[in-house]
Automatic annotation (TrEMBL):
Pfam families: CAT_RBD (PF03123), PRD (PF00874). Keywords: Repeat. Residues 69-174, 175-280 form the PRD domain. GO terms for molecular function: RNA binding. This is PtsGHI operon antiterminator. SUPFAM superfamilies: PTS-regulatory domain, PRD, SacY-like RNA-binding domain. InterPro entries: BglG_antiterminators, CAT_RNA-bd_dom, CAT_RNA-bd_dom_sf, PRD, PRD_sf. One of its GO terms (biological process) is regulation of DNA-templated transcription. The lineage of its organism: Bacteria, Bacillati, Bacillota, Bacilli, Bacillales.
Length: 280
């Protein structure tokens, strides 16, 4: 039996917000689905080509504002992009992406039309850490060029990839940016203390990024790797420079994340730093 909802508001001919006693407010998308629809009208869930739920009232208001100020055809295209992302990532996306990425892309399209470009200082790190998201973002930029004839700068691929990663991990963009700033700070500290310059194109740089990324994630999740007292003593005696640098990095993480960092991270950082110095 088809599920029937009640129209709350037709945002345009192709987008309707409907009420459901279980899901609360549901956004229904489909060709002509909003034509002549009035508040209180019944509407079948099967009438929609696509649906999503915005449970946050503020996000519903933001989405309504977005639609009021955008060309309906552009909104339809941007909606298609988000469902394309969900298909490519093969997992559910946080509902927030319907507001955040739609807003970002519509503004980026206007910027590109006005030849205004933003640089992305973490482009290489984003590509390295979120390879699948970066590839999907690259394909989206190609789709925008094909559909609208607008060429985005390379940095835009990184911004879109961040939105995708945010949606699949349920983490805020600002938290991800803080994460990248912390990694950049730690890399700078490593280069200064070891008197080296790490080539961003080098496989060792990619491994370092992955290790620091996982270390920060473990701190957020309060994961402990395990106590290794004997290993600690050996590393401290054998690789004092790397061991002391690892402690500096851990203290930076503690300060920036405002969370305790388990001592075991020092050991794993020491091993990784020693491998890095050997290879360089």
């Amino acid at each position: 039996m088809e599920k029937v909802l009640t129209v709350e508001k037709a945002l345009n001919n192709n987008v309707v917000i409907a009420k459901d006693h279980v899901l609360d407010e549901v956004v229904l998308i489909g060709k002509g689905i909003g034509f002549n629809r009035k508040k209180g009208d019944p509407i079948g869930l099967n009438d929609a080509e696509k649906t999503f739920v915005l449970s946050d009232k503020k996000e519903i208001e933001q989405y309504q504002t977005l639609i009021r100020h955008q060309d309906p055809e552009l909104m339809e295209f941007l909606n298609d992009i988000i469902f394309y992302i969900e298909s490519r990532m093969d997992q559910p996306l946080n509902e927030h992406i319907h507001v955040a990425l739609t807003d970002h892309l519509s503004f980026a399209i206007k910027r590109a039309g006005g030849n205004i470009q933003f640089s992305n200082p973490f482009l290489f790190e984003i590509e390295s850490l979120y390879a699948k998201e970066f590839q999907v973002a690259h394909d989206i930029v190609d789709k925008i060029d094909e559909k609208l004839g607008i060429k985005f700068p390379e940095g835009e691929i990184g911004f879109i990839a961040l939105h995708i990663h945010s949606a699949i991990t349920d983490r805020q963009i600002r938290d991800l940016n803080k994460h990248h700033e912390l990694i950049a700070l730690m890399v700078e500290l490593i280069e200064d203390n070891l008197s080296v310059t790490i080539n961003k194109g080098d496989v060792n740089y990619n491994r370092l990024l992955q290790h620091l990324h996982r270390a920060i994630d473990r701190v957020h999740q309060a994961n402990i790797l395990g106590k290794e007292q004997n290993l600690k003593n050996v590393l401290k005696m054998t690789y004092p420079t790397c061991y002391n640098l690892a402690w500096k990095l851990v203290k930076v993480m503690q300060k920036q994340l405002n969370k305790p960092v388990d001592e075991s991270e020092v050991l794993y950082l020491t091993i990784h730093l020693q491998r890095l110095t050997n290879k360089m």
